[in-house]
Amino acid sequence: MGGRVTATMVARHAGVSVATVSLVVNGKHRGRVSPANVAKVRQSIAELGYVVDRVASSLSKGSSDLVILISPDISNPFFAGVIAGIKQVLGKRYQLLVSVTDDGNLPQAQEVRASLEFRPAALLVFAPAETFVDAVRGHAPMVLIDAPGMEHLAPTINIDIEASARALGEHLTSLGHRTFGYLDSRTGSRTFQMRRDALMDQISGSGGHESISEVATSIVSYEAAGEAFTQAWPQWSRDGVTSVICATDIQAYGVIGAARSLGLAIPGDLSVASFDNLSYSAISSPSLTSVELPSVELGRSAASVALALIDGEAVSVSHEVFAGQLHVRESTAALTTS
Amino acid sequence: MGGRVTATMVARHAGVSVATVSLVVNGKHRGRVSPANVAKVRQSIAELGYVVDRVASSLSKGSSDLVILISPDISNPFFAGVIAGIKQVLGKRYQLLVSVTDDGNLPQAQEVRASLEFRPAALLVFAPAETFVDAVRGHAPMVLIDAPGMEHLAPTINIDIEASARALGEHLTSLGHRTFGYLDSRTGSRTFQMRRDALMDQISGSGGHESISEVATSIVSYEAAGEAFTQAWPQWSRDGVTSVICATDIQAYGVIGAARSLGLAIPGDLSVASFDNLSYSAISSPSLTSVELPSVELGRSAASVALALIDGEAVSVSHEVFAGQLHVRESTAALTTS
DNA sequence: CTGTTAGCGCATTCAA
DNA sequence: TTGAATGCGCTAACAG
User: Fold this and answer.
1) B44 CB contacts (<8 Å, ≥6 apart)?
2) Percent of chain A scored above 90 by pLDDT?
3) How far apart are CA B35 and CA B51, in angstroms?
4) Disulfide-capable partner of B192 in B185, B186, B196, B325 (CB 3.0 to 4.6 Å)?
5) Distance (Å, rounded) from C-alpha B330 to C-alpha B90?
6) Of A51, A56, A99, the CB nearest to B113
């Protein structure tokens, strides 16, 4: 306390005015401040240990240097990749504020509005609910991540989930599977819905194949997924389900764990596959067949668009799409018995 | 743009002064504003869609409602637990800003200073380096998490890593293991050092037992750990190592993967154990013997102390300690052959 | 109880 | 090229 160094103190120390100090610290002194004064100011700044007060600066400028990412669930390591990508592109100039929604819910208008109170330079919203966009109304540049179907609302970075889902469907049908159980994510994000829809399209569209027998739902957690599976299995078993597909890897782990408890062999009795391709999926036992989602690229791209928006470039509702990649591993196998 | 509603506009709309509006929005109107005016203000706020500008508010008050967590590595799911715990306690009043350090480095003075620019209500620093504390000097209340040996600098929440490490050591020695390899974390945090030291104490102190033969080091990543193990194994093998202990679960996964590539059976040829007890550790194959670290409790406790500090309570350099819990699983087994 | 006033620290006019 | 003055929107002290 009391230890705060202000621009006024620097100005006095350097024998110049606050305005001069401001110009120097913001690098706007090209031909506006004499080299001698620039040097004096720099010296004083160093001696006094002055740091710009971003709060005051933000108030004066009308917007902060904060880029806020609103994301539904960072317990999924997938987000670590997204965040890493964002940070790479943002660099030192902007601080990333990660605002986590409660309980894996989709970002709502409320969260967006709360974030707006900080006058962020930009807002990155992951898998938003459909209803929230009005809240923003040109208050801050906004980029949507993984929000298929919302491209008309704001620049959006999407995963080409359809192609990936199809690839997964093809893989499983080619192994002889005909009846599937699907474990969805309860957050109800569009992206999850599309994963499921594209899969069902592929499977039922392959001619003569039965469609997914039933859809169980759980929040994205190991335990919840295990419980959901345990509950669904009696019915699924009667329906002849030979393969379970999960919206996320974490849920697949839960299913595998629960299936073991039920005495099922993976992939002998049941094939399991999912979306995310976390690192562990390569080494788990059985290793997990999974669709790799380009998390880092997603983050990088979103941040790039945000920067362009901040700089006033009229990003024409860009709609970038990154493709996923299917990794076939031990958890899926051909149907051996009938 | 142009759409920003200010307190002045609300005041005019409600026919009162800005001061009254301020009192109402801050809930400080108990006996200071007439019920009639409170109602009018509330009404106007709703009609106009007014939101407090936290930037201006922060400048005026001298500190923001931001609680900043500086953490070295959110790609480790362990942190998701810590963050969840913090958010539980912080509630709606304070926003949590997660500031991730680059590349899994320990939080340095630089990160702390940058965070200070936002005038946070409090700072939570995870596994800090020893050199950084001067940067804060009473600018903001600070709580250290998992920082053994730094209790004299600030209120600290620690894991009782010694007891856990001892439990792990006992488990392994009781299985007949006498020679150990240890895979450390390169970040060099005190907590990692203590994990190792306590283990060595236990092992060598058990009388007649050989101590850990050698210490390999890697950053906390699956790949790096695998490489470190592959490099260390020839020597370890000659030394008679029968058990490898890792500073984190993620590294243990790497070791298990690498060991497999070398044709080693786990736990037949080699027992593996570690610290963290991530969810996956229960279902990996072999499932992993691991010390559970109380991540959520850690976060909750740190946030509680932070709130107390914010409220001006003189937290007497509290030094809370949470115990870990050993989960024995398949990756460790008794020595069968000699 | 209520309104008026004076900053918070900085960026940005506008004169000089 | 520089400095003094103004305002960003709000809170807190003060006066009514």
Assistant:
1) B10, B13, B14, B50
2) 36
3) 21
4) B185
5) 38
6) A51
Q: What are B215-267's pLDDT values in tens digits?
A: 777 777 788 899 999 999 999 999 889 999 998 898 999 999 899 899 999 99
Domain with CATH 3.40.50.2300 in chain B: 61-159+295-323, 161-294
CB B148 within 8 A of CB B191: yes
- For chain A, say whether B30 makes contact (Cβ under 8 Å): no
H helices present in chain A, as ranges = 7-14, 18-25, 35-48, 54-61, 78-90, 109-116, 161-174, 190-205, 222-239, 249-261, 295-310
Distance, in Å, from the CA atom of A69 to the CA atom of B230, rounded to the nearest integer, reads 39
Is CATH 3.40.50.2300 correct for B161-294? yes
d(CA A116, CA A136): 8
- The answer to whether A54 contacts chain B (CB < 8 Å) is yes
Best residue in A86, A221, A280 to probe B by mutation, most B CBs within 10 Å?
A280
* Token code pair at residue B76: 């480790």
Poorest-confidence range of B8-12, B38-42, B317-321?
A: B317-321
- Give the pLDDT score at A334: 94
Q: Are B227 and B219 in contact (CB under 8 A)?
A: no
Residues A130, A110: contact at Cβ < 8 Å? no
Residue A2 pLDDT exceeds 50: no
Q: Which residues contact A259 (CB under 8 A, 6 or more apart)?
A: A229, A233, A244, A266, A269, A270, A272
- How far apart (Å, rounded) are the C-alpha atoms in residues B115 and B99? 8
pLDDT for residue A194 is more than 90:
no
Residue of A nearest to B4 (CA): A139
User: Is the CATH number of domain B61-159+295-323 3.40.1370.10?
Assistant: no
Contacts of B77 (CB under 8 A, 6+ apart): A75, A77, B278, B279
Residue tagged 């739902």 (tokens): A217
Q: B168-209, pLDDT tens digit by residue?
A: 999 999 999 988 999 988 776 667 777 888 888 888 876 545
What CATH number was assigned to the domain covering residues A7-52? 1.10.260
For CATH 1.10.260, the residue range(s) in chain A are: 7-52
Give the C-alpha separation, B146 to B138, whole Å. Answer: 21
Higher pLDDT, B139 or A7: A7
Among B58, B77, B118, the residue with its CB nearest the CB of A77 is B77
A140: left (phi over 0), alpha (psi -120 to 50) or beta: beta
Phi-psi region of A302 (alpha: psi -120 to 50; beta: other; left: phi over 0): alpha
